[in-house]
Amino acid sequence: MSEAEFLARRESVERVMVIREREDLTQIAVLEDKVLVEHYVARESQTSLIGNVYLGRVQNVLPSMEAAFIDIGKGRNAVLYAGEVNWASLGWKEGQPRKIESVLTSGQKVLVQVTKDPIGHKGARLTSQISLAGRFLVYVPDGTTSGISRKLPDTERNRLKTLLKEIVPDTAGVIVRTAAEGAAEEELTRDVERLKARWEDIEKRAGGNAPQLLYGEPDLTLKVVRDLFTEDFAKLVISGDSSWETVKDYVQSVAPDLEERVEKYDGEADAFAAYRIDEQIAKGLDRKVWLPSGGSLIIDRTEAMTVVDVNTGKFTGSGGNLEETVTKNNLEAAEEIVRQLRLRDIGGIIVVDFIDMVLESNRDLVLRRLVECLGRDRTRHQVAEVTSLGLVQMTRKRIGTGLLEAFSENCDACGGRGLVIHEHPVEPGKSSGVAPDEPRSRRRGGRGGRGKGRDEIGGEQRTEPVEESARTPSPAEFAAMAGQTEKVDEPAAAAESVETPVETVPSEPETAEAPKVTTRTRSRRSKAVTTEEPTVAESTEPAETAQPVETAPEQVEAPKVTTRTRSRRSKASTPAPEPVEAETPAEPVAEAPAAAPAEPEAPKVTTRNRTRRAATTGRPVLAA
Fold first, then answer.
1. How confident is the model at residue 62 (pLDDT cuts 50, 70, 90)?
2. What is the mean pLDDT of residues 195-200?
3. Is the whole model's pTM more than 0.90, yes or no?
4. Strand bridging mode 288-290 / 296-301
5. Residues 469-473: contacts with CB within 8 Å, 24+ apart?
6. Contact 507, 522 (CB under 8 A)
């Protein structure tokens, strides 16, 4: 859509106001081309304080904050900043420094007006510059100048300036509203006289005790009708007998030319449902807002500011390049952002992160579209320059209760934070039962019929013994089994023919009771080069066939112990001589010393019992 088309569409907008009355509240909706742009809620229990005039009492003055806390009789103190002080009415003299502590003291009575309702833990905002709003203008009792809305054309501004010189008294000032466009002199005069009489009544009551209410604004329903319902609206639809009588009487007395545009809703369905207002309210409460082309907005509100992020979403463009696609998405986002600000009544600092654009002309076009859309917003706003990061900063004055505050309340569990805080540290991924970074193969491990996990079938983490036939042999056991099944061409006969007892270290399975060691039993047979008959070791069975040695059950069941029993036969390079019997153990030979008998001790970590036979060198063994 070009800029000319946008301006033409802006002038031909069909505006409709719908009022729905319920038992304890009244809702007012403003539609532009059947699209909800503003929503207000009026409750008897939650009446807005904006516009009320109070005679307050100063509770405390804070020079460092340049503010004073005023008691207006509402329980929570309101705040009056130095920038909102009417210095002339409080006795300030020309030439003196403008310090709030010089004109206000604790216990002093002061005339104030509410400009902002209390929100959360913040109290109401006050001003001592009183202003009374009418239909066509705002009356400022202590003002010396008059102003006219900038939204009016120059010709109308000049006409109104001429009329105001004759109508407004010299001791007061007025601010002409947009609704005064085309108003006759009689209507403006009647409005000024009514507001002047109201101010005189406030001054008479200001001599009473503080705190007290001197003037209360009308019901929110009448206030919205007074401020918004003008000739720009096609009609005003009212659902509810009480609201119908109140609004109709007010329009007849204030704007009789608009009486024919007021209608009473008599449909069977609900008025908000007929205009699809409830549906649009539900979408307005979401954090994510979809654009017509497929893009999206993410709106996050914080205590300091509101941040709006613009995304392309599902929008991929319809030809052209990336710059055109991004620019079109940003133009749609600018219009929708203004609508969301009005609908949600977002105030304070607002930062918009548009999608980055390369051309300066496109950035100016998006910013200009944003300012033009804000022209429909009746609240005071200001758009700052684009920052170095490409962010658009703006401020907006909040009118009343926002959409989110009207339809929501803080969570009892998290207090509106969105998080549940625990007393102790929480394991990541606790809600799902599995750590998010845990491999899937480990998640499925267990004893549920899917096979045992990696840590359940071996090593020190094993909690129960595993059958020998069921577990996989280790590489060392594979080597032992391979050595046992290998055929031997010449059995070790020479080693067996030597009947001389050789001292060996007996293999005792009791040593397997040492804790925290894995039990392993191996039996190996050494290869003899020149042997004729096998030699039987004390720790092994006769090797008639090459079969793997079975492991004793008690050795396997011993938890966390490693016991290795090996039977090795010494290698003989020459045939052994005739055996020589000895009554006593033979003395050790220098080349082949005999091992002295020693009692085996239970090792602390790993026990290895090995049975070795002395290697024969072919020399005769001397008897003792």
1. very high
2. 91
3. no
4. antiparallel
5. none
6. no
Do residues 270 and 281 lie in contact, with contact meaning Cβ atoms separated by under 8 Å?
no
Residues whose CB falls within 8 Å of the CB of residue 109, separated by 6 or more in sequence, listed in order? 55, 56, 57, 58, 210
pLDDT at 395 over 50: yes
pLDDT digits (tens, 9 = 90+) for 310-336: 998 777 767 678 888 899 999 999 999
Sheet containing 35-43: which strands, arranged edge to edge? 35-43, 25-32, 15-21, 233-239, 262-264
| Alpha helix (H) residue ranges in 437-562 | 440-443, 475-485, 493-497, 553-557
Structural domains of the chain, ranges and CATH numbers in brackets: 14-45+221-275 (3.30.420.60), 52-219 (2.40.50.140), 286-396 (3.40.630)
**Of 542 and 356, more confident:** 356
Interior/surface letters 415-432, b for 16+ CB within 10 angstroms, e for the rest = eeeeeeeeeeeeeeeeee
The rounded distance, in Å, linking the Cα atoms of 619 and 127 is 122
Q: How many CB atoms lie within 10 A of CB 207?
A: 8
Q: Please, are residues 467 and 557 in contact by the beta-carbon 8 Å criterion?
A: no
**Mean pLDDT in the chain?**
74
SS3 155: helix
d(CA 239, CA 220): 16
Between β-strands 109-116 and 132-133, what pairing exists: parallel, antiparallel or unpaired? unpaired
Cβ-Cβ contacts under 8 Å for 612 (sequence gap 6 or more): 504, 505, 568, 570, 595
Q: Using one digit for the tens of pLDDT, what is the confidence trace for 135-147?
A: 888 999 887 778 8
If we measure between CA atoms, which residue out of 118, 123, 116 comes closest to residue 68? Answer: 123
HEC per residue, 578-597: CCCCCCCCCCCCCCCCCCCC
Q: Each residue of 495-524: pLDDT tens digit?
A: 444 444 444 444 444 444 444 444 444 444
Question: HEC states along 288-354?
Answer: EEECCCCCEEEEEECCCEEEEEEECCCCCCCCCCHHHHHHHHHHHHHHHHHHHHHHHCCCEEEEEEC
Run of H or E including 363: helix 360-374
**Dist. CA 331–CA 313, nearest whole Å:** 15
As a whole number of Å, the end-to-end CA separation of the chain is 119
CA distance 568 to 574: 18
475: which 2 tokens? 């590489």
CA–CA gap between residue 620 and residue 580 (Å, rounded): 8
User: Does residue 527 surpass a pLDDT of 90?
Assistant: no
Task: With cut-offs at 50, 70 and 90, classify the pLDDT of residue 383.
Answer: very high
- The token pair at 402 is 């926002």
3-state class (DSSP) for residue 7: helix
Residues 161 and 148: beta-carbon distance below 8 Å: yes
Show Cβ contacts of residue 43 under 8 Å, excluding neighbours closer than 6 positions. 24, 25, 26
